What does this fold into?
Amino acid sequence: MTDKELEILATKARLLILEGVHCAKSGHPGGSLSCADAMTVLYFDEMNVDPTDPRNPDRDRFVLSKGHCAPALYAALALRGFFPPEEMRTLRSINSHLSGHPDMEFVKGVDMSTGSLGQGISTAVGMAIAAKLTGKSYRTYSILGDGEIAEGQVWEAAMAAAKWKLDNLCALVDVNGLQIDGKTEDVMPLEPIDKKFEAFGWHVVKVDGHNYSEIKNALSEARATKDRPTVILLKTVKGKGVSYMENVAGWHGKAPNDEQYEIAKAEVEAHLAELEG
Amino acid sequence: MGERKATRAAYGETLVELGAKYPKLVVLDADLSGATYSNKFAAKYPDRFFNCGIAEQNMAGIAAGMAAAGLMPFTNSFAMFATGRAFEQIRNSIAYPKLNVKVVGSHGGPSVGEDGATHQMNEDIAIMRAIPNMMVVVPCDTYEMDLAVRALAEYEGPAYLRMCRYATERVTDAIEGYSFELGKGCTLRDGSDVTVIATGITVPMALEAAELMASEGVSVRVIDMHTVKPLDTELTIKAAKETGCIVTVEEASIIGGLGSAVCEAVSGACPVPVVRHGVPDVFGRSGSAAQLLEFFGLTPEGIAAKVKEALKLK
It folds into this structure.
């Protein structure tokens, strides 16, 4: 898929994310917007998934380890055809399958229930081991938040992935530099993230997390890397695409009010019109 | 008298046997495979054994991912770390998505012995029982353990299997009419004055206590409640109605475990006096297993004393 086609889809995903969070009057727009481009590349260019056969045992797997960014995953799944995009309006409501954090039991296309940080990556390791053990060629992908990697379990999983030489596993860290309480470097310094993963036995690729070609190339490099897992460090802007949300920690877990939503929607729609025009 | 052997040893042997029957059976451990007896499986099926190192949270997560991909994982560690350290991983990554993971905790309760309080898990039954979708199974001897492991391999869903370090007597195989079914308690001895509902290694003690009380003219019913969750409420309420009082016995905290489950069952349907016997609201301590069981009154004599307490409340 061309970069432009991907950008159009990612922009549509941003509109769905904003619509969902606005309708729900709660949720996590900042991190959803920062990982929307990588999510789009995964679901439209990289992964072997089929909306008409969501439980196919040979499909590629995806685990949203930073489960609070469910709106980004739901938007990608909706655009990919797993369920109607209009359902984003039911996000977080009591009778909706689109709960605040992804639930594999109810959402078509969700491969693992997540939400408690640090846990998703371990389950992705389990899926990758299962593929090796059963001789299946599917690959497993997982997006983590940068704040999330303060969880010790992430590093337990990182050690295990290297031990079992999981070259069928690709983690992506959304390095937007912000978490609920502020800058990651203030809350708990994480850098150098690349050196840490290298020391844990991973192949590391650093890219601009909003550059489709760079993300595609990194994913292809991950596929070509043998005998060790790959982590792609996505340098991103939290709140990407909405001027007043960009690089503002306050938009981690807050929904825009009606007025703010109209401004955000207008900005993203204008960008979409530009792309499609 | 039946052979004395720890339930964990029987578990290890059965697991090896099941390896042939279930190609999707995978076994995970966290650096305690000699103590949990998962090393037997590791020796026979090295490709299906995964030593996760001292990282129980990650082990639980890996097992969840394996189950989501169609495998049948059994995770192993001491009860303390299997359920305590990894509690939230079990809750959110295994039980919430209803994944087919069997969490196996060895070294449950004070009979761990000399290692002391940090390694004596008395709260595991309570915390596992509190999680929706979780089954909790505590076999009482090696014969029952073998049957429980086979049944759990057939059961599709999350479950906690508790076993202990201490070698105890095998009793169930010699009892006429004994049968094992998950979720169904088994009446090992009939009686009409009082019912002792026991789980785990306290079951053989309860049978001895019943014998002691018989010599005093008291007729004690003994129920082996190997499945603490879902509790066999039918059998429990029947016992409440027919014998009028109950003593629960577990080698675990009296807060939240079998005793609590029985109280919850009878309080709404047939409120009768229930004396909960087990580890009170305290931590364990070092000592030999036998000394610690004696310390907490988890002996035939200790149980008999509780039976007398219950009878007075009738």
Residues 176 and 236 of chain A are 5 Å apart (CA to CA). Chain A touches chain B through 35 residues (CB under 8 Å). Chain A has nine helices and seven strands. The two ends of chain A are 18 Å apart (CA to CA).
